Each structure stands twice: as C-alpha cells, then as structure tokens.
Amino acid sequence: MIRIENLEKVYKTEEIETTALNGINLQVKEGEFVSIMGPSGCGKSTLLNVMGLLDKPESGSYKFMDTELLKLNDRERSNFRKANMGFVFQNFNLIDELTVFENIELPLIYNKVPAATRKAMVNEIIQRMNIVNRSGHFPQQLSGGQQQRVAVARALVTKPKLVLADEPTGNLDSSHGNEVMELLCELNEQGTTIVMVTHSSHDAGFSNRIINLKDGHVISEKINKGITEELI
Amino acid sequence: MFKLNLKIALRTLWKNKSYTLINAGGLAIGLASCMILLLYVAHEWGYDKQFSGYEKTYVVYNNSKNNAETLSWAWTPTLMAGEVREKIAGVKYASHSTYPNPHLISYKQNNFKAPAVFADQAFLKILDYEILSGNAEQALTGVNTVILTETLAEKLFGQEDPINKVVKFNNEEVLKVSAVIADVPVNSSIQFEYLLPWALFEKINPWVKNSGWGNNSCLTLLQLQDEGQLSAVSAQMRDIYKRNIPDATNEVVLQPLAKWHLYDHFENGKSVGGRIDQLKIFFLLAFCILLIACVNFMNLSTARSEKRAREVGVRKAVGSSRAALMNQFLQESFLLAFIGMLTAFMLMEIALPFFNSLLNTSLKINYTDWRFWVALVGLTLATGFIAGIYPAFYLSSFEPVKVLKGFGHSGAATLSIRKALVVFQFVFAACLIVCTAVIYQQLQYIKDKPIGFNKNGLIEIPMEGNLRSKEKMALLKTQLLESGAVTGVTYFSRSLNEGGNNTFSVSWPGKNPNDQVLFNFRSAGASFSKTIGAEMIAGEEFSEAHHNDSTHMILNEAAVARMGLKHPVGATFSWGGSPVTVIGVIKDFVVESPYQAPAPMILYHIEDEFEYMIARMNPEGNVSSSVNKIDEIVKAINPNYPVERKFADDNFEQKFQNEQLLGTIANLFGGFAIFISSLGLLGLALFMAEQRKKEISIRKVLGASTMNILTLLNKDFIKLVAIANVIAFPLAYIISSNWLSAYEYRIQISLLPFGIAVLLSLIIAVLTVSLQSFKVAKANPIDALKYE
C-alpha cells in the first residue's frame, strides 16, 4: 500500500543543519500494523509526519496505492489526508473548546458529510469506544486514557485506510496504555493499516513488524509473531 | 528601580516589534490627528482675540423685529457711535467703520484691488493693530491719509519706505501713507489690507453725512471701561433706536467680539451658536480618535498578558508590591506614548501643508507658544495614562502561585472586555462612515439641485473705473459680442452670488399692515433671463426699450406667491410709497443660500445701478482663448484696473465651503479613526491566531482547508463588527438627522449610508484579520503541534 524510496529531510536553523531522514526506503502492506522505533532524534516522528503529509521531505518518493503523493499541492494534500488518513497523537491534541462529540465530529465536517449521517457515525464510534456517557464533556473533564480514546475515535470516525499513531501511550499510565493498544489491535484485525511510532518495546510488541531507525537510516526490521503473548 | 524598569520596558518593546509598531503607530496617528484638529480648533477659537481689550469689546447687533421673526445683523446707523460716545456712560471707545470692500489702490505703475475699511480713530483704539512704522495716532482723523498693512506696502512700494509717500485711491483721491501696520491676523473677522479715514468715506459718499437712524450701513464697535459695565451699558443701548425714531421696532444687543466669529447664528435676537457647533464636533472628534488609539493599547496589552504573567509572578514572588508593578506597566505605556508623540510630530509637520491646502487654512505649529507645549505634554501624559491604567491594573492583579503554575483558562473575563473595546472602536468607525456619507449626499444633493439658472460658462465683470460710463459699458458689450468670445451680455446691480439689497417697504392690496416681508431688489439689464439661462414664466423681460424705467417690475415666483397675485402680469403694488406695475414673472433663481428657498425678489431696469456685466461665454469657443480675449478687451477699455473677471460657478462653489470643510474633515479623520481601529484589530488577530495556533493545526490535520480556517478566525471578528454596526446605526441616525435638520432643503436619510458602513467596516475587518490569519492558516500544521 505504501512504498517509500530514498526519502530525505533536513531541518535547517540559522546555525545548524540536522539531517532527520537520510535515504529511507520502506514498504507497508495493506492491513499491516507497523511499529517504528529508535532513540530520540532518530527521525521517527519526522517519518510519520511525512507519511501523514504533515511535512514535506526534500527529496525521494512516497507512493500510496501507486499515487505519488509528494507531487501534490497543498490543497490536494489536504484532501488526500482527510479522505485516507487518521491521526493519534501522544498529547491527544483535542480541541479544548469543543465537547467529546464535537471533537469526533470535526473531521466529518471537513469531509463534508451531511449532518444526519455525521451524527449516526459519531454515535456509532462513541459506542464502540465505550465513551457514550462522556459525549457531552469537555476534554479537560476526562482522564488521560479517556482523552486518548476520544482521539482514537476521532481518527477512526472517517474510516481511514491508514491510521498514523505518534507515541499513543506516551502520556498514559500502563493500564490506560494497554487499553489503547488493545483498541489499535482490534482495529487492525478489522483491516485498518496502522503505522505507530513508539519508544516502548512493550507497545511495539503489539504490532506485526518493527522497524528500527537510527540517524535517519533504517537499521533493522523484525517480523513479530506471537511475541505479544510471551511478553504478557 | 526606574532604570531597571526602563530597561525591561525597552526590551519588551524591542522583543515584540510588531506589537510595538502597531501600538506606537496607532498612538502616533491618533496623537497627530488629535493635535491637528486641536490646532484647527485653537485657530478658530482664537478668532478676534489678538486685541488687548477684546474681553471688553462688543459688536453692536441690530435686532429688527417683524411678525414672523427677528432678524439680527451687525449693521447699524452711522450716527450711533457718536451718540454712544456722548450719552452712554461706561463706554470707553465707540467706533464706526465700513465692512471691508475691495477698492483700487495704486502707486506709480502698481495697481491693486485690495479690501479696504473706512474707519474713525476710535477703531484703532479698540483694535490695537501692531504699528510697524509711521504715526497711526492721528492717521484716521484727517481726510486724505491711509494706513497700509505690511504686505500691501511691500506690494506697492517694494523696498522703498512708504511713509509720507502718496498713493492714488480709485484713481480719484490722492492719499498720504501715514503708517504701516502688521498684516491683519488670519483669524480676525475684519480682513482688510488698508485703512482709510471715515472723513474720506463721507467725502466720496455725500449721502452718509445726511443718513439718519433708519439707515443701517456701518459696523459699530464698543469698548467698555471695564467688563462690569456690561449690564448697565446693554440696558442703555437696548432702546437707542426707539429714542431716536419713535415708531422703531429695532433693539440693540451687544455681542462680545470674542464670540463674533463662532456664535454667528441668531434666533429671536439672541445668539444661539453657529460655527461653534461645528467646532465642538471637531473637538470631540479629536479626542475620540485619540481614545481609539488608547483602546488599541489597552487591548493589545491585556491580550498579551499571558506572556507577561510569568514576569509578574516572579516579581511578586521576590517581593514586589502591586503598586510597584503598576508603576512599571504605566512607565511602559508612558514610554510608548512618548515614542508615539515623537512620531506624531514628524507626521504633523509632514501632513500640515497637505491639510492646509485641502482645507484652505494656514495652520502651523507655533513652537514659541507655551500653550502648545503644555498641550503637547498634557496630551502625551494623558494618553500614556489612559492607555496604560487598565492594563496596569489587570496585569498587576495576577496571583503569583497561579501564574507560575501556568495560566490555564482564566482569560475569559478579559476576552469579553477586549471584545467590548473592539466593539467600541467600530461603533465609532461605523458612525463616522454613516455621517460622512450623509454629509456628502447632502452636499451633492444641494449642488445638483437646480438653482434656476445656468451658472456654467457665465462670467461676471465689475463695472468700475472707465466702465462706470455708459459709453464704455456699451463699447465693452459691442466688442465682446463681436469678438465671438461671448454670445450674450446683460447687467446686474449685484454679483449673481451676493446677498444684500433688500427692503421691507413693499406693500400690495390685501397686505396685512403688520406683516413685514423682506424683498430682495436688483436692477437687471435687457435680456437678463435669456443670458443667465433663467426662465420667464409669464409676461416679458426687460429690453432696450425700458430705458431707466422705475415703474415696471419683474417679480420672481416667490414674490408672486408672497403677494398672492393671481394674475401677476399687469398687477400693481407699491414700493417705497410709489406705485409700480408687474410686467413679467421669472422663475425663482438662487442668489443667496442654496440651502434655502429663494426669497421674494423684485427686478427693475435702471442703468445707473448696474454694477456687474454678466456675459454668457460662447459654448463653441475654447474656454481659455475666450477668457484671454475677454481679458484683453476689458484691459484695453479699463487700463487702470486689474481685470476682475470671475466665473459665476466659482463664486457659487464658495457657498458650500462650510459643508465641504466638514465633509473633508469627517472623511479624512474618519479614515484615520478607521485605520487606527484596524491596526488594533490587526494586533488582536495577531494575538488570537497565535493563541489558537494549536487548535488550528489540529483542525488542519483533520482536514480543514485554508478557507475553513480563515472563516473560523474571521467569524468572531465579523460578529463584533456586526454588533458595532447595530449599535452605531441609531446613534448615527440621530446625529445625522440632527445635522440635517438645520437645512431647509435636505435629503431623506436613506439606507445607502448604512449599507456603506456595514460593507466598509466588514471589508476592513475581514481584510485586516485575514492579513494575519492567512499566514497561520497556511502554516505547516505540525510546527505548532510538535513543540507542546
């Protein structure tokens, strides 16, 4: 589904240049659950942002189901993103001024889904995420785990082909973290492709494949089978 | 401590350059606008106050009563000053003088037509003009003497010493220059370039000596011994007419010289305002603009408070008192006001010449005047204080524990205050837009209103010098027509745009004897209506056949209506006791105020009274070559006089001066006010966009387009501007209908000005806000999310 070739990304400030991605090659098949791991500053978040069309690389190729995405202009990128991708962030990134329901509804509004359909879709996902009784609350009124559930719900409500998760458990304690991970696994089993950046090998254990990054290179790849059970 | 505060203030200002620019820029424009307006107000306010005894000096007003109304004017009998001197105690000086009128004055080859005043010696005692050379003490007691102003003396004599030299007056009288005085101040009601003795006036116009108490032909000024005498003198003056003419209805009121210019509007014999009303508007406008600039500062300072909160917390934690903090924040705003003032200075010096040419004024900053510096320092301090006091209170109120932990979401209260301030600014802006639009509509309406004749391509030439003789008058007419420059010629006893020449002594069958109606009267030449493009409604107009005819009259429609004549042509009425016959009716045409219905008018045909030739330019000819031809012909026939040819429509334009001035000022300073308001809005948008950066990024990640984001950010501001418009409309309606009510001919207030206000304020708001939010909306969303 995703084919990335020779991706390069350099951050420039007044004094220094930092190479975040240094010729990355990567493929993700449909229905896969891929973890990206590596030390701080190895470029894993940058890679995820590029995959989510939130950031532009200097050079390379990024094909999504045979469409070259790096050639798109801003508007096309934005359209492609909202049609195909969902995001889960470490710090949830919910909008404080909107209720749980409204937060989840937001991407549907931007996808121009009619109001009635919107309501049905949001209600469905709220039930699935088990946050029905929280739908009228504001983000600050929820625990971290609940907030992340809302964020996941918001990422899924548009039924994206690809979910990109940036350290989804980073701000959560272990029990809440496991809840979120189980949610992602469940999703993956239903056919959604997931790419997750994580520090935690515990979390990475939930995925099918682990990619290790260092200094902007892929240094190793590992297929996971049955490890999840062993760790628990 | 002060040094430290200053350092922090300077660093804060430097660190936030865009805010500093917006703040200082807004304050500078506000201060400059305010100061220029105040300069104008001071200029008007200073009218006639240059004379040392101005507080004790009064202008004699004559209230003449009839059934309908009381008319007040400063025209009095020549006998009055003498009688006051003799009989009324408490008066130090009483003078009579003419009003300024242009006359020819020449020295060798230099001829100038310049305004002159004939006055007695007391005139110079009351109005103590600065004497530059010569002896003015006895100058006006003689007959053939003259006092020149500096500029005229220079024009006539160049570098020569004018004293005791001889000039010629109207090519007839020989006068000796006895003194030179400084130019009359620009803001003085009596504008002349030379002064002549009253005795000369009597010599040239023999009727003056014999004119009695019924002839109001001059200006009388009084100076009291001291101000306390006013009530006693007023009481004695009131019935001065009745003491001299038994059946007179006239009464006298004394108008202070200092109020002559500004309080020139009389109703029922009392001064009820006038220019002062317009001046008050300007005064208010000056402070409103400054206030708007101050509001910007308040808005931006409180908006940025979160950034300062930590500093406040730390300072309080290490022991600073609230007062010390307030002090610090006030110092910052004083510093900014000071920067604004320096910039305002530059703006003023740059803008004043433009302003002067636009408004036809000659304002300048008088650096040697202590009042200017007091105003300057006062305004700067007041600005700094007003702008800084609320932010100082607000910022210094933070509790250290809370702010050091993080600000949280306590900004709601200040947000609503900020919104209220923005609404306030735009209420003012929308009001100004509506009022400006109404002023322009009214002006256009009056300008477009038919005036009863075709003023385009009509020129007026005064019949002076050689042209006073009938032969030369006829010669000029023939030559002009032959030259092809003009297609028609007629005469008139006054300029087409002049008032005056009116009488009460007209009566007709069926007239109520107590009814006093004022009729304008003019002597008109042959083919008068044809030449000026007016319309005869009935009967015929004067032709060459009506030679010096004092019994046949043409009336205007208003006169016919006033007399109630059903069949005007052939009707008779009495004028000054003699019976006269109506031969024609002319459609009303405007000679006085275009804002009022034309007064009744009587036209007659007496050649001796013709003062102006009126000529219709050949519409097929080239204007400038025609004008040159005309000037040449006039100069050839009347070589001793400068050519005074004028276009009737130029003169007519002057009738709109007041409204034009108001319109221009409202437009100009309204523009500034709006600009300053948008600066504030820009700052607020800057802040809002920054504050909502994270939210915007999230929305973008979720698929919001640039347009979505722009709409989101603009929505709030549009709401505020809409609310402001709603508040402004009733206000603007009241103000503008109040202003309009002073005009007899006025427009109905339409929806258009309000539409313009809504549209303009919204466009301005959207553009301003988008200018900033566009950047945020276009930004890469991840930048804001990455560094949480």
From TrEMBL, chain A:
InterPro entries the record matches: AAA+_ATPase, ABC_transporter-like_ATP-bd, ABC_transporter-like_CS, MacB-like_ATP-bd, P-loop_NTPase
Domain (ABC transporter): residue spans on this chain: 2-232
An example Gene Ontology CC term for this record: membrane protein complex
Pfam families assigned: ABC_tran
GO molecular function terms noted in the UniProt entry: ATP binding; ATP hydrolysis activity; transmembrane transporter activity
SMART domains attached to this UniProt entry: AAA
Coiled-coil intervals, chain numbering: none
Family: Belongs to the ABC transporter superfamily. Macrolide exporter (TC 3.A.1.122) family.
Protein name as it appears in the record: ABC transporter ATP-binding protein
Source species: Pedobacter quisquiliarum
UniProtKB/TrEMBL annotation, chain B:
Gene Ontology molecular function terms on file: transmembrane transporter activity
Domain ABC3 transporter permease C-terminal: 284-400, 668-781
Gene Ontology CC terms: plasma membrane
Membrane topology, as annotated: Multi-pass membrane protein
Annotated compartments: Cell membrane
Transmembrane segments: 21-42, 281-300, 334-352, 372-395, 420-440, 668-689, 717-735, 747-769
UniProt cross-references to Pfam families, sorted A to Z: FtsX, MacB_PCD
PROSITE patterns named among the record's database cross-references: PROKAR_LIPOPROTEIN (PS51257)
Domain MacB-like periplasmic core, chain residue ranges per copy: 20-239
tRNA-binding recorded as keyword: no
Key words, A-Z: Cell membrane, Membrane, Transmembrane, Transmembrane helix
Keyword Aminoacyl-tRNA synthetase: no
Superkingdom of origin: Bacteria
Protein name: ABC transporter permease
